[in-house]
Amino acid sequence: RSGRSAALRARMEERLLGARFRYLNQQLYTGSSRDAARLFSADPAAFHLYHRGFERQVRRWPERPVQRIVRYLRRRPASLVVADFGCGDCTLAASVRNHVHCFDLVPLCPRVTVCDMAEVPLAAESVDVAVFCLALMGTNLQEILGEANRVLKLGGTLMVAEVASRFEDTHTFLKAMAHLGFRTVSKDLSSSYFYLLEFTKTGPARPGPVPGLRLRPCLYKRR
Ligand code: SAH
């Protein structure tokens, strides 16, 4: 009997965690990056819960997108300076020899600099590679990508890995990226889980509205 009630209780707890994860996830994808920063600084426990849920989701995928970015960096000189926007558990920094600036809202590991990714403490044109691996969550995409443009050197690389279903129209999205000073170098749309996009910074972001710059929120269904 006590075995059964323990199992029931464990199942209930799982359900609650799942529900809280989905709720937090929805907040992150439907608010600005600043809202996210406020949410997690007010409640760091929510952040840890979010990360457990995130881990559970990506474990189901055949390949972790961050591994693709690791492979990409290993093919390029280790002298390149990298900025990892929304670094999570710092898998990227731990897997390459490059100097990696790790940015996230709460430190899952000691090398994280805590900040909102729309405002990172780096000098203009100071990094060679900027990375957003499943991290373009805020609705203020123009501001976030503008920040990546600011810290990137001219000719520097922007790598974006995002959930495939978030793209409404890839062509329009890439046109919007060009408006923000990012020319598409390569796009791998072969996975049904995530797209991998590589850009070069061609110049500063052009000001003004960028209509096609939109990604659908990534909402998980109850299982
Ligand atoms: N890049 C990691 C983690 C992806 S999860 C990986 O691929 O494993 C997305 C990460 O972005 C989370 O750790 C989340 O906390 C972070 N994030 C979301 N909004 C952010 C913001 N406004 N500023 C900084 N980090 C943010």
Automatic annotation (TrEMBL):
The protein's enzyme class: transferase
Location(s) in or outside the cell: Nucleus, Nucleolus
GO cellular component term, pick one: rDNA heterochromatin
GO biological process: cellular response to glucose starvation; methylation; rDNA heterochromatin formation; regulation of transcription by glucose; rRNA processing
Pfam families noted in UniProt: Methyltransf_8 (PF05148)
Alphabetized GO MF terms: methyltransferase activity
Keyword field: Chromatin regulator, Methyltransferase, Nucleus, Repressor, rRNA processing, S-adenosyl-L-methionine, Transcription, Transcription regulation, Transferase
The keyword S-adenosyl-L-methionine is assigned to this record: yes
EC number: 2.1.1.-
InterPro entries: RRP8, RRP8_N, SAM-dependent_MTases_sf
Cell membrane as UniProt keyword: no
Summary of subunit composition and partner proteins: Component of the eNoSC complex, composed of SIRT1, SUV39H1 and RRP8.
Annotated PANTHER family: RIBOSOMAL RNA-PROCESSING PROTEIN 8 (PTHR12787)
Family listed: Belongs to the methyltransferase superfamily. RRP8 family.
Protein role: Essential component of the eNoSC (energy-dependent nucleolar silencing) complex, a complex that mediates silencing of rDNA in response to intracellular energy status and acts by recruiting histone-modifying enzymes. The eNoSC complex is able to sense the energy status of cell: upon glucose starvation, elevation of NAD(+)/NADP(+) ratio activates SIRT1, leading to histone H3 deacetylation followed by dimethylation of H3 at 'Lys-9' (H3K9me2) by SUV39H1 and the formation of silent chromatin in the rDNA locus. In the complex, RRP8 binds to H3K9me2 and probably acts as a methyltransferase. Probable methyltransferase required to silence rDNA.
Protein's recorded name: Ribosomal RNA-processing protein 8
